[in-house]
């Protein structure tokens, strides 16, 4: 038999206690659930291979036998005993100095032309962007080699012989393939140009500034953040160039190592000569160099990049 306790008149039953919620913890948990595919992918496909590569850079590893620890021998051999390594460094720096300024200049020139167009802007923007999608493929690089080879289009037009077989011209042919892929920076430049207020050009015109003066005094300062972004991005990509040089030189870096860029020599050491430890050391040196160059660009940007929201910059 059960008994019940009577509730006095005028009193209400106390509400049942509810568990305390932690909305912040719940939001963090949901965020980690959605981020888990990226975290897993970054850990397995990026961080873990980087850690393995760093370890292999201190070993003698030929892809078939277990790695043997050699300490800093790969690095000392790279800097003091390998003349082809320094030739690849010089070739890569030369390529970057040629390709990046030409590509950015052409991209900005085409963006300025598209900005002033009244009709067909969407069509031409897509047409100029198409090489950026196609140029990185091996098939386009092989076509490029045929164009600049003996008896190719350039030889027939100018009678200069095949560029890919001339040490002084082969690297230029590779650089021009990169310059031809100016679509991505062009689109970014075009977006930046469209954000410049028209009032600035009107005020400059009232002051008597011509088109060139408007470009120097208005367009370049207002576009400097976009220019800096493209410069950093294209410089990083140029240091890692591989496919154009590999295709144009038929995988040999010739003639006379004139197209032996850094990543191509890294590929040769790692997968052709089976010196994977040495190639891993080269990869880490490249990573450090790109980091230093990027840091220098960021440091020097303080003197020439203008941000409209920061008048004192």
UniProtKB/TrEMBL annotation:
<keyword id="KW-0472">Membrane</keyword>
<keyword id="KW-0812">Transmembrane</keyword>
<keyword id="KW-1133">Transmembrane helix</keyword>
<dbReference type="InterPro" id="IPR000515">
    <property type="entry name" value="MetI-like"/>
</dbReference>
<protein>
    <submittedName>
        <fullName>Binding-protein-dependent transport system inner membrane component</fullName>
    </submittedName>
</protein>
<dbReference type="GO" id="GO:0055085">
    <property type="term" value="P:transmembrane transport"/>
</dbReference>
<keyword id="KW-0813">Transport</keyword>
<feature type="transmembrane region" description="Helical">
    <location>
        <begin position="214"/>
        <end position="233"/>
    </location>
</feature>
<feature type="region of interest" description="Disordered">
    <location>
        <begin position="1"/>
        <end position="24"/>
    </location>
</feature>
<comment type="similarity">
    <text>Belongs to the binding-protein-dependent transport system permease family.</text>
</comment>
<dbReference type="Pfam" id="PF00528">
    <property type="entry name" value="BPD_transp_1"/>
</dbReference>
<keyword id="KW-1003">Cell membrane</keyword>
<feature type="transmembrane region" description="Helical">
    <location>
        <begin position="30"/>
        <end position="56"/>
    </location>
</feature>
<dbReference type="GO" id="GO:0005886">
    <property type="term" value="C:plasma membrane"/>
</dbReference>
<dbReference type="InterPro" id="IPR035906">
    <property type="entry name" value="MetI-like_sf"/>
</dbReference>
<feature type="transmembrane region" description="Helical">
    <location>
        <begin position="276"/>
        <end position="298"/>
    </location>
</feature>
<dbReference type="InterPro" id="IPR051393">
    <property type="entry name" value="ABC_transporter_permease"/>
</dbReference>
<feature type="compositionally biased region" description="Basic residues">
    <location>
        <begin position="10"/>
        <end position="24"/>
    </location>
</feature>
<feature type="transmembrane region" description="Helical">
    <location>
        <begin position="168"/>
        <end position="193"/>
    </location>
</feature>
<feature type="transmembrane region" description="Helical">
    <location>
        <begin position="126"/>
        <end position="148"/>
    </location>
</feature>
<feature type="transmembrane region" description="Helical">
    <location>
        <begin position="93"/>
        <end position="114"/>
    </location>
</feature>
<feature type="domain" description="ABC transmembrane type-1">
    <location>
        <begin position="89"/>
        <end position="297"/>
    </location>
</feature>
């Amino acid at each position: 038999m059960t008994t019940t306790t009577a509730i006095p008149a005028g009193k209400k039953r106390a509400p049942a206690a509810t568990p305390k919620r932690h909305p912040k913890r719940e939001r963090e948990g949901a965020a980690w659930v959605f981020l888990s595919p990226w975290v897993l992918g970054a850990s397995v496909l990026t961080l873990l291979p980087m850690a393995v590569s760093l370890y292999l850079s201190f070993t003698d590893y030929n892809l078939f036998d277990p790695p043997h620890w050699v300490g800093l021998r790969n690095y000392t051999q790279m800097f003091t005993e390998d003349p082809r390594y320094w030739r690849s460094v010089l070739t890569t720096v030369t390529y970057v100095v040629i390709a990046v300024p030409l590509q950015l200049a052409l991209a900005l020139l085409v963006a300025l032309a598209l900005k002033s167009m009244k009709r067909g802007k969407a069509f031409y923007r897509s047409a100029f962007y198409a090489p950026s999608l196609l140029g990185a493929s091996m098939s386009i690089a092989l076509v490029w080699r045929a164009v600049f080879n003996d008896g190719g289009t350039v030889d027939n037009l100018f009678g200069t012989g095949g560029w890919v077989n001339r040490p002084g011209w082969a690297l230029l042919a590779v650089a021009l393939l990169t310059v031809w892929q100016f679509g991505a920076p062009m689109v970014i430049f075009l977006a930046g140009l469209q954000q410049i207020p028209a009032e600035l050009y009107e005020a400059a015109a009232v002051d008597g500034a011509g088109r060139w003066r408007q470009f120097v005094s208005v367009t370049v300062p207002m576009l400097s953040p976009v220019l800096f972004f493209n410069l950093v991005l294209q410089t990083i990509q140029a240091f890692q160039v591989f496919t154009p040089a590999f295709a144009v030189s038929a995988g040999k870096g010739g003639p006379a190592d004139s197209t032996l860029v850094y990543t191509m020599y890294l590929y040769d050491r790692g997968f052709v000569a089976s010196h994977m430890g040495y190639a891993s050391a080269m990869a880490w040196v490249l990573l450090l160099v790109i980091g230093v160059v990027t840091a220098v660009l960021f440091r020097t940007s303080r003197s020439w990049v203008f941000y409209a929201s920061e008048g004192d910059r």
